[in-house]
C-alpha cells in the first residue's frame, strides 16, 4: 500500500527533530522541573514511531541500524548497575549522590548519579516500546 | 570487602564466559574457568593461618539495611573448610572436565552453569545473613538443575533435573519459613546474633517448628532418607558434575546448615534424635541399596547418600555436648563433631576420585554397567590404582584416610550409646549396631566397585570401545585426590590442627575455652573395641561379598512398587492431572469469561472491603468546587465513553477510546500536574499507535450475538464496577488512617539535590521500585518479542525426545 504523502513526509522530517530536541530537554530537565527518564524515553520512542508510520520500517531501519532489544537490555543494565555501583562506595544499594561542579561553558552545574539511573530508564522505555511495535507490525 | 568480591567473582566469570566462548572459538573455555577457581582457592587458602589462630574475617555490604538484610560475608573455621572444598575440588573437576567433555558439546553453557554454581555455593557457606543465605541456597538448586539437564535431549536427564529441583526447592522453601520464624523470634537475620540471643527463646512456641523446617531444608539438600530419591536420578548429569555437585559440595550444603545451626538448636533432644536418627538410618539404607546397583554411577550415588547420612549422624551425636552447657563431660561428646568434619573432608577426596574413575571407565569403554565390565586391571592399571585407593578408603581400611574417620565414627557411636540422657539408655545401643551393619554393606559395595570392574574376565564384545588408559589430563585430577587420600592417613593432624579445630570453635562457640578436638591416631591398641569392629567388618564383609549371590534375594523383600520413587511419581502425576482438570475448568478461552472473573473479584474484594469498613459513608462537603472547564471535560468524556458502545467500526472505537485518555490528560493540566499530563499524553499517543498496529491482525468487527442472559450479567457487572470505582474515588480523601509521609519528600532539594519532588521520589527515595519496574518492563518487552518472533520450528521437535 503506497500512498504519496509528500506533505506528511516533509513535515515529519522537521517535526522529528523538534520532538527529539524536546525529548533531550525533558530528560535533562527532569531533576528540577517536569520531565525525567521515563517521559524523555517515551517522547524519543514516539519520535521513532512517527518515523515508522511516515516511512516504512525497512527505510528507517536502514537509516538507524540499531537493535532496540539491545538498547533495552543496556538500559536495564545501566539502571541496575548504578544500584551495585553504590556498593563500591560502601553505601547501601541504590544510594544516589549529587554534587555541584564548575564546568567551563555551563557555569556551576549539578551533576548527579540519578542521571545515569534515569538514562537507563529512558533507554529501556525506548527499547521496549520500539521492540514491541516493530515485532507486532512485522508479524505479517 | 575482598571476601564479598570473592563470592561475586564466579558470577562475573559466568557472565563473561559466553562472550569469550563466542569471540575466541579456538580457546577452550574451561581454562578460563579453572583460572578463576584456582585463584579463588589460593586466595582462600591464604586465610588458613589466620583462621587457625582463632580469627574470623567479616565484612558487611549494606543491601536493604531497613529490613536488616545485608550482604555479610563471614569467614570462620567452618566456612573455610567448605569454601576450600568448593574451590579446590572445583578446580580439579574443571581440569578433569576439559578432557572429559568433547568440544562439540555446548561448553559455553556448561562452564557458565558451573561458575554460577561455584558462586552460589560460596555464597551459601560465606553468608551470615539468613535471607542472603537462602537466596544463594536456591541458586545452587537452580544451577544444579541446569547442570543435570545439560544433555536435555534425553528424557531421563530432564526428569532427573526436575525431580532434584522439586525436592530441593521444596525443602529450601521450608527452610525459608523456618528462617522467618527465627527472625520473628529474635528480630535479626544474622546467624551469629541469633546464636547470641537464642537461649532466651528456647521455650518459644515457634522454636521447635523452626527447627524442623530448617532441618527439612538440610535433609532435602543432603539427600537424607526419605528425600534421597533425587540423588540417584541426578546422576544423569555429566560425570564431572556428579563428582562436584552431587558428591563433594552441593549435597554437603545441608550438612553445613546442620553444623551452622548446631549452636542454635543443639542440645535439644528432638534435634539430637532427628539428626542422628535420620542420619544413621540414611547411612544404613544407602549402603544397603548401593549393593544391589549394577550401574557404577548409581552405586556411587547410593554410597554418597549413605556417607552423607553418616556425617549427618555424627553431627547429631556431637550436638549432645550442648545439652549440659559447659562441662568437661560435654567436650567428650564433641569428638563426634570433630570426626564428622574430618569425614566431610575425607569423603570429598575419595568420593571425588571414585566418581572421576567411573567417568574414565565410562568415557573409555562406553559403559558403566558392572555386568559388562571386568578385567580392566591390565589395560587400565593407573585407573585401577586410583579406584582401589578410593574404594578401600571408603571401606575404611588402613593406609587410607577413610580408616581414621571410620574408627572415630565407631568411637562416637559407642560413646553416645553409653550416655544416660535423651533416653539413650534404652535406644542408644541401636546406634553402634546400625553403624556397624551399615559399615559391612559399605565394605561390600566398595569391593564391588574394584573387583567387578577391574578383575574377572575381560569381555571386549560387550564394550563399545576396547579399553585403554585415558589421556593423561584426565588422570591428573583423580591422581591428586588419591594422593590426598593416602597423605591424610599419615598426617591427619595437619588437617586437624589447621582446619578442623578452628571449625570446632565455630560450631561450639560456648565451649571454646576448652581444647576442642582430639589428636587423630591410627592405632588405639589391641583392646580398643573400634579395632575389633573394623576387623569384624572386614571379615563379615568379605564373606558377604564372596557369597553374595546366596543372599541378594533379600532385596526382593523391597519391591519396586513400594518405593518412594513410585510415591513421588504418583504424587506428581496426580497433581498434574488435577491441576489440568481444574485449570481447564475455568480457562475457557473466551475473553468475556476472563473479564468477568477479573471484575467479579474486583467487586467482591474492593466493594466488600468498602462495605465492611464502612468507608462508603464519606463526606464530600470539604472538596473543592467544580469549575466550568472541569465540568465540560467530564461531560465530553462521558459522551465519548457511552458512544464507544454504539461505534460501528473498530477504528472509531479506538479513536473514541483515546478521547478518554486525552481527557484525563486535560484534567491533569487543569489540576496543575504537568508531569502527569505530559506522561499521560504521550502514553495515550503510543497506546493508540499500538492499537492501530494490532488492528491489522484483528478479524472483521461484527455485531456480537450475545444471549440475553449474559448480556444482563454484563450490564450488572459494568454498573457495579463503575459504582465501586466512584465510591473509591470519593471516599479516598476521607479516611486518614496513617500519618502522612509527604513531609519527608519536601526536603528533596537538600536530600536528593532535585527540585522536582516526583522525580526525586522515582529516582532516589524509592529508586528500588523504579529499578524493578524497569526490569519488569524489559522482561515484558522480551516476552512480546519471543512470543511473536521465535516460533518453534517443526524440525526441532523430535530432537527433544531421545
Automatic annotation (TrEMBL), chain A:
A Pfam family recorded for this sequence: MnhB
Protein keywords: Cell membrane, Membrane, Transmembrane, Transmembrane helix
InterPro entries: CPA3_antiporter_subunitB (IPR050622), MnhB (IPR007182)
Positions of transmembrane segments: 12-30, 36-55, 71-94, 114-136
Highest taxon above the source species: Bacteria
One Gene Ontology CC term in the entry: plasma membrane
Membrane topology per record: Multi-pass membrane protein
Localization annotation: Cell membrane
Keyword Membrane annotated: yes
Residue intervals of the Na+/H+ antiporter MnhB subunit-related protein domain: 7-131
Stated family: Belongs to the CPA3 antiporters (TC 2.A.63) subunit B family.
Protein name: Na(+)/H(+) antiporter subunit B
Amino acid at each position: 500500500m503506497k500512498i504519496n504523502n509528500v506533505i506528511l513526509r516533509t513535515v515529519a522530517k522537521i517535526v522529528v527533530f523538534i520532538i527529539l530536541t524536546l525529548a533531550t530537554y525533558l530528560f535533562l530537565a527532569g531533576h528540577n522541573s517536569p520531565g525525567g527518564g521515563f517521559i524523555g524515553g517515551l517522547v524519543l520512542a514516539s519520535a521513532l514511531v512517527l518515523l515508522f508510520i511516515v516511512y516504512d520500517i525497512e527505510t528507517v531501519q536502514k537509516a538507524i541500524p540499531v537493535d532496540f532489544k539491545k538498547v533495552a537490555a543496556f538500559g536495564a543494565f545501566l539502571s541496575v548497575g548504578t544500584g551495585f555501583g553504590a556498593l563500591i562506595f560502601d553505601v547501601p544499594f541504590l544510594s544516589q549522590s549529587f554534587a555541584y561542579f564548575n564546568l567551563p561553558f555551563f557555569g556551576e552545574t549539578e551533576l548527579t548519579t540519578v542521571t545515569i539511573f534515569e538514562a537507563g530508564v529512558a533507554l529501556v522505555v525506548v527499547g521496549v516500546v520500539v521492540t514491541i511495535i516493530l515485532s507486532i507490525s512485522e508479524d505479517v | 570487602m575482598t571476601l564479598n568480591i570473592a563470592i561475586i567473582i564466579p558470577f562475573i566469570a559466568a557472565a563473561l564466559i559466553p562472550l569469550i566462548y563466542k569471540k575466541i572459538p579456538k580457546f577452550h573455555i574451561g581454562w578460563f574457568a579453572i583460572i578463576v577457581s584456582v585463584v579463588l582457592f589460593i586466595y582462600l587458602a591464604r586465610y588458613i593461618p589466620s583462621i587457625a589462630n582463632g580469627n574470623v574475617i567479616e565484612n558487611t555490604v549494606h543491601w536493604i539495611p531497613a529490613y536488616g538484610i545485608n550482604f555479610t560475608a563471614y569467614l570462620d573455621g567452618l566456612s573455610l573448610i567448605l569454601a576450600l572444598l568448593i574451590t579446590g575440588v572445583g578446580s580439579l573437576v574443571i581440569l578433569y572436565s576439559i578432557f572429559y567433555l568433547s568440544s562439540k558439546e555446548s561448553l559455553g553453557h556448561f562452564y557458565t552453569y558451573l561458575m554460577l554454581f561455584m558462586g552460589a555455593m560460596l555464597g551459601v557457606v560465606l553468608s551470615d545473613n539468613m535471607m542472603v543465605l537462602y537466596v544463594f541456597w536456591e541458586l545452587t538448586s537452580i544451577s544444579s538443575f541446569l547442570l543435570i539437564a545439560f544433555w536435555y535431549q534425553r528424557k531421563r536427564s530432564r526428569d532427573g533435573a526436575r525431580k532434584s529441583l522439586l525436592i530441593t526447592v521444596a525443602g529450601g522453601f521450608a527452610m525459608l519459613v523456618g528462617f522467618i520464624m527465627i527472625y520473628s523470634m529474635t528480630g535479626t537475620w544474622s546467624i551469629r546474633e541469633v546464636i547470641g540471643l537464642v537461649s532466651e527463646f528456647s521455650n518459644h512456641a515457634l522454636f521447635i517448628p523452626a527447627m524442623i523446617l530448617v532441618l527439612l531444608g538440610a535433609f532435602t539438600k543432603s539427600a537424607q532418607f526419605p528425600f534421597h530419591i533425587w540423588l540417584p536420578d541426578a546422576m544423569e548429569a555429566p560425570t564431572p558434575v556428579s563428582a562436584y555437585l552431587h558428591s563433594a559440595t552441593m549435597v554437603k550444603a545441608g550438612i553445613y546448615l546442620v553444623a551452622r545451626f548446631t549452636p542454635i538448636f543443639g542440645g535439644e533432644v528432638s534435634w539430637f534424635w532427628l539428626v542422628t536418627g535420620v542420619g544413621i538410618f540414611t547411612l544404613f539404607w544407602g549402603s544397603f541399596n548401593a549393593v544391589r546397583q549394577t550401574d557404577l554411577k548409581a552405586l556411587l550415588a547410593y554410597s554418597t547418600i549413605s556417607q552423607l547420612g553418616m556425617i549427618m549422624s555424627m553431627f547429631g551425636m556431637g550436638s549432645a555436648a550442648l545439652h549440659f552447657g559447659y562441662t568437661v563431660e560435654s567436650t567428650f561428646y564433641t569428638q563426634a563433631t570433630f570426626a564428622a568434619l574430618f569425614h566431610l573432608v575425607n569423603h570429598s577426596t575419595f568420593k571425588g576420585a571414585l566418581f572421576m574413575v567411573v567417568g574414565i571407565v565410562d568415557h573409555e569403554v562406553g559403559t558403566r554397567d558392572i555386568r559388562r565390565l571386568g578385567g580392566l586391571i591390565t589395560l587400565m592399571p593407573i585407573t585401577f590404582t586410583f579406584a582401589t585407593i578410593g574404594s578401600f578408603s571408603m571401606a575404611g581400611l588402613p593406609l587410607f584416610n577413610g580408616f581414621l574417620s571410620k574408627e572415630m565414627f565407631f568411637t562416637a557411636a559407642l560413646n553416645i550409646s553409653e550416655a544416660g540422657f535423651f533416653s539413650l539408655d534404652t535406644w542408644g545401643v541401636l546406634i553402634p549396631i546400625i553403624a556397624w551393619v551399615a559399615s559391612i554393606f559399605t565394605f561390600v559395595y566398595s569391593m564391588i566397585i574394584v573387583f567387578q570392574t577391574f578383575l574377572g574376565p575381560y569381555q571386549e564384545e560387550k564394550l563399545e570401545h576396547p579399553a585403554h588408559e585415558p589421556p593423561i589430563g584426565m588422570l591428573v585430577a583423580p591422581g591428586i585426590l588419591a594422593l590426598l587420600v593416602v597423605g591424610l592417613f599419615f598426617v591427619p593432624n595437619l588437617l586437624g590442627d589447621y582446619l578442623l579445630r578452628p571449625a570446632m570453635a565455630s560450631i561450639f562457640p560456648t565451649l571454646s575455652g576448652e581444647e576442642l578436638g582430639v589428636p587423630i591416631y591410627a592405632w588405639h591398641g589391641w583392646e580398643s573395641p573400634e579395632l575389633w569392629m573394623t576387623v569384624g567388618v572386614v571379615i563379615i564383609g568379605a564373606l558377604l561379598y564372596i557369597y553374595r549371590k546366596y543372599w541378594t534375594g533379600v532385596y526382593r523383600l523391597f519391591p519396586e512398587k513400594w518405593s518412594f520413587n513410585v510415591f513421588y511419581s504418583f504424587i506428581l502425576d496426580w497433581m498434574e492431572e488435577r491441576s489440568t482438570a481444574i485449570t481447564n475448568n475455568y480457562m475457557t478461552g473466551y475473553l468475556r469469561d476472563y473479564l468477568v472473573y477479573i471484575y467479579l473479584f474486583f467487586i467482591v474484594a474492593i466493594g466488600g472491603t468498602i462495605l465492611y469498613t464502612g468507608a462508603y459513608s464519606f463526606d464530600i462537603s470539604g472538596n473543592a468546587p467544580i469549575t466550568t472547564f472541569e465540568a465540560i471535560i467530564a461531560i465530553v468524556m462521558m459522551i465519548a465513553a457511552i458512544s464507544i458502545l454504539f461505534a460501528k467500526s473498530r477504528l472509531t472505537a479506538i479513536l473514541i477510546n483515546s478521547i478518554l485518555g486525552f481527557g484525563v490528560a486535560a484534567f491533569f493540566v487543569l489540576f496543575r500536574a504537568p508531569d502527569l499530563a505530559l506522561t499521560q499524553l504521550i502514553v495515550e499517543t503510543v497506546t493508540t499507535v499500538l492499537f492501530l498496529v494490532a488492528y491489522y491482525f484483528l478479524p472483521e468487527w461484527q455485531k456480537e450475538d450475545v444471549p440475553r442472559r449474559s448480556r444482563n450479567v454484563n450490564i450488572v457487572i459494568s454498573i457495579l464496577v463503575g459504582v465501586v470505582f466512584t465510591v473509591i474515588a470519593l471516599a479516598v480523601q476521607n479516611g486518614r488512617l496513617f500519618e502522612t509521609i509527604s513531609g519527608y519528600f519536601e526536603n528533596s532539594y537538600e536530600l536528593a539535590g532535585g527540585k522536582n519532588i516526583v522525580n526525586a521520589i522515582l529516582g532516589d527515595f524509592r529508586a528500588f521500585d523504579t529499578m524493578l519496574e524497569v526490569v519488569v518492563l524489559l522482561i515484558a518487552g522480551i516476552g512480546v518479542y519471543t512470543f511473536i518472533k521465535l516460533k518453534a520450528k517443526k524440525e526441532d521437535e523430535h530432537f527433544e525426545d531421545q
